[in-house]
Input
Amino acid sequence: MDNTPLSFAPPRGMRDFYPEDMLFREHLFETWKMSAWRFGFLPYDACVVESLDLLRRKAGEEISEQIYAFADKSGRELALRAEMTPTLARMIAARQGSLRFPLKWYAIAQCFRYERMTRGRKREHYQWNLDIVGAQSVLAETEVIAAAASAMKELGLGPGDYRIRFNNRALLSELLKKLGIQPQHHAATFLALDKRGKIPDCEIEELLRREGLPSEAVSSALELMAITTLEEIENRLGGETPALRRIRDFQQAAEACGILDLLIFDLSVVRGLSYYTGIVFEAFDTERKFRAIFGGGRYDNLLGDIGARPMTAVGLGFGDVVIAELLREKESGPCRLQPAVTAVGYMSEQQAQLAIRIASALRRRGRNVDMRLSPEKPRNFFSYAGGGNTAEAVFIGPDEAASGILRFKDLSNGQERQMAISELLEGHPGSAGHTTGQS
Amino acid sequence: MDNTPLSFAPPRGMRDFYPEDMLFREHLFETWKMSAWRFGFLPYDACVVESLDLLRRKAGEEISEQIYAFADKSGRELALRAEMTPTLARMIAARQGSLRFPLKWYAIAQCFRYERMTRGRKREHYQWNLDIVGAQSVLAETEVIAAAASAMKELGLGPGDYRIRFNNRALLSELLKKLGIQPQHHAATFLALDKRGKIPDCEIEELLRREGLPSEAVSSALELMAITTLEEIENRLGGETPALRRIRDFQQAAEACGILDLLIFDLSVVRGLSYYTGIVFEAFDTERKFRAIFGGGRYDNLLGDIGARPMTAVGLGFGDVVIAELLREKESGPCRLQPAVTAVGYMSEQQAQLAIRIASALRRRGRNVDMRLSPEKPRNFFSYAGGGNTAEAVFIGPDEAASGILRFKDLSNGQERQMAISELLEGHPGSAGHTTGQS
Output
């Protein structure tokens, strides 16, 4: 057996959640769940371990280089999922005949990417996924975005804090076609254009040339990114097109949802994943200090691509890392889910049995009780209780045992209320008195 | 690119959770969380990916053969955790100087074991972990067990449904010592004895002989397992010993907690993990049809073993698979967490904007709304709403738009209540009317 000292750090890029972090995470997850229900989404989940085949074939190229892959003991090729969408598509394909469509599902899924560790990027995160499958209407887009905006609002973030930049890949396709770029090059062009700002433009041009685009199309494609208004695009396209009409329908539905003030049209929003086909969007903090808070779009071909009956789909992913950074920036700091707890302490072994009975009776009445596990002086007990998440404290010493009266101290204001032990213990099994036998 | 058809099944031994399964899982997790809070436990978590080193060195031998291990792209040896306890010990070791002890923490952790796939065993499950670190008192044992019993009660399971069999490894040590078996052989003897019922006794004897036990000690060790009462053990040991006193303290604390009627002393309960040092326990359904529902025990050496300052500890693990099987057996079947949802439908595109505004207004008022995403006939809408988890339905057709009156249909009893659209939409941004412009 190896005897070199063990490291107590988590593996590189992975996170430990101590209670203070976990209380924030639970608050965030609760907010996500509540907003999902608010918008009529049902929960689903799958194992974080997927077949490598599914991930390799259907994820974008960039992701497949970043997959944590391994073989199990019988040689099966497995991987830790990098995103939830391929798994969702697989699960829907498996029961396509019996599920009711359109379906609205959500998941809070841990996802893994092997990335170079720069600027505090992690190799795992949790992502809230909202998907609507089987709906053609642009209402699917506004529903997922409005649900995310509702969660943002619950977290205390509004139009002053972030904006959602959107585009329509179909619009970009219409523009590329106008430039003479054939549809079979569009997917690769999108992926190359998505790298703008991350790699120099000359490298993007090189990528596009390697894809086989004519030189003049390459520079025109990059010039497109300078267009900022729908009016200018309409001029270039010579009138309203299906993709432009789609964007206007989207804006109209967004207005009815009350989320129009969050939206900004931005032709440069492309999204890195190859499977998007229509409207795509990304939410950023207004100062653009952080990476995207959430993002998503329409992917009408994925089900067909994996061999299922083709179905339209819209999805949104909202990670737990950027939102936590953003909330930490806000003066208030991240909220925490923290139910009220009553601490119960006792002076000596003589009061131990009584203290346990009191703690048990309080719990049966629905109170959260932090029972102390050894005798202690009142001063030590109240110092412990005051230093944590305790709302109320009750201490049992010889006086309480003799008088039969408990004093509950409210730690927020120091006020005490009294309660008879007999009243608390009355009529419950195992609580007949504070001696072991019958009273 | 490979073009063989993809399988839509999850990887072997891994589970998909469709909404009906997920609603049960959420109900179970909520019950676990609520019971953890009720007993004063704080949440923690860590990534399912651990360093292989930690798992290999500190888990029992049986587990280390079953670990899903792999290397990341820089050659780091990683693994999917098989249990949470080594991770807990690592996290505590990392902050031992700043944490307050005794600490009471819980986690709901996915764990992986590569097992041969027999009798519906899975390769992953979720496990509720309760741990108390830094408490010597037997109250630590009763607290974790009472918390689990509280969760069982919330799930509708009481003393008629299950019993908790307990033992004290220290007691078994005293007996083995009495047989002349040296302490250095005890851990291996425990692991061998734990296999009783799983492999033939002759194979256990062989294991013990290989460990170096004298032949007469081997058969005596197996004979011990026939002892059923504490009195008989006391006779064998020639009076009360520390391990027997510990058991009696445990029973007394259990009585005060109201869980004594769930407990059965059973000398054959040993638990497979090598790190247990004191009281160990396992809960089984009364008919013993299933594997253990939950189990755990005291492990006072683990922190010292991984190189941290030694600290006493007690833990309990409660998996999601056996409890689901058990609840499925009960006539009632497993409960599901299912908030009330209002379905909103509309007749034609003319009412789409109004329907969105109504759905948005209901959501702002805290209602969970399943907004339909395309126009449909009332008959189709109410047939959809009646077939799912919908509590209430409201349909917007030309009549409603003209009269300004909505009818909310309670799907549990068919009753309708009316509400003016203007009242619902009043005073909210983006809800000034059902046309796009100003009213």
